[in-house]
Design brief:
Blueprint lengths: L4 E4 L6 E4 L7 H6 L9 E4 L18 H15 L4 E6 L1 H12 L4 E7 L8 H11 L2 H8 L7 H13 L7 H10 L5 H13 L12 E7 L8 H6 L4 E7 L6 H4 L1 H13 L3
Parallel strand pairs: 2-3, 2-4, 4-5, 5-6, 6-7
Antiparallel strand pairs: 1-3
Length: about 270
């Protein structure tokens, strides 16, 4: 499928950005708008997300097909080797792309994500611990609901504690800023999230994986060890005082060291 994208031309290593979902590429693109880098930058929306078209058959909305859409985009843009950046649930798709199209990946940057689904229980616990009693009571009414309206409420409340300090206004701005928040696609992909595990395939990657963490992220930091144990080479980068959306909170402080690493000679 031909997905919608923004291509910022440049010189050097091209970087492809896998946003967390159900958001689209908007927050990543906006966070990079004032960052001066020479690299070609490619921001895209997955199928059924943002400005990209929807599939006609729900069976065609899968992690594998999303990864293959990005591969078609890489081919069409004419890049042989790319660096991939995956954030949150977008990291699951970045790892899926890596395992399917490894020969075209030079470096990998993973921020607050995982190579398997084991993180889910601890993540849910971390989020709930940061909720106020009032929010906990409100969300209990939506506990098992996965319809788009219920997901809209749950994501707006969850994203509140993804910021440091927790900020409902920032969370709502993040959601409102997206061209389309794909709640329906999230529901349809949920089965893949639950069984996700690509760890056994990561040892084949012979280059370095940069694992990025933030002090106040709700994602469990134990995912670091899980990735470390399944890749050949890795480097850690940690940001003090930031949350899950560190690139939105402090764009310059977040992106500069990451691009310094991407552009350094091996």
């Amino acid at each position: 499928m031909e997905i919608d994208y923004t291509h910022k031309h440049g010189a050097g290593v091209p970087v492809f950005f896998f946003p967390t979902f159900p958001l689209d590429r908007t927050y990543l693109e906006n966070s990079m708008s004032q960052i001066e880098v020479s690299n070609p930058l490619v921001f895209f929306d997955y199928r059924n997300h943002g400005r990209s078209p929807d599939v006609e058959d729900e069976k065609d909305l899968t992690f594998a097909k999303i990864a293959d859409d990005v591969e078609e985009l890489r081919k069409n843009l004419g890049y042989e080797k790319i660096t991939i950046f995956g954030h949150g649930l977008g990291g699951l798709l970045a790892f899926t792309y890596l395992t399917r199209h490894m020969k075209h990946v030079g470096k990998v940057v993973i921020f607050s994500s995982s190579a398997s689904a084991w993180y889910r229980g601890e993540l849910a616990w971390n989020i709930r611990q940061r909720f106020s009693p009032q929010t906990k009571n409100e969300l209990d009414n939506y506990f098992s609901r996965m319809d788009p309206n219920s997901l809209k409420v749950k994501f707006s409340r969850a994203y509140t504690v993804y910021f440091e300090p927790p900020n409902l206004g920032m969370a709502q701005k993040l959601l409102d800023g997206s061209h389309r928040v794909a709640y329906d696609a999230y529901y349809k992909l949920y089965g893949e999230i639950e069984k996700y595990d690509v760890r056994s395939k990561l040892r084949k990657f012979k280059n370095v994986v940069l694992i990025v963490t933030a002090e106040h992220d709700v994602w469990p930091l134990s995912y670091i060890r899980d990735i470390q144990n399944h890749v050949r080479y890795h480097k850690l980068m940690h940001f003090e005082g930031m949350g899950h959306f560190a690139m939105v909170e402090s764009p310059q402080e977040f992106w500069k060291p990451i691009f310094d690493w991407i552009n350094q000679q091996d």
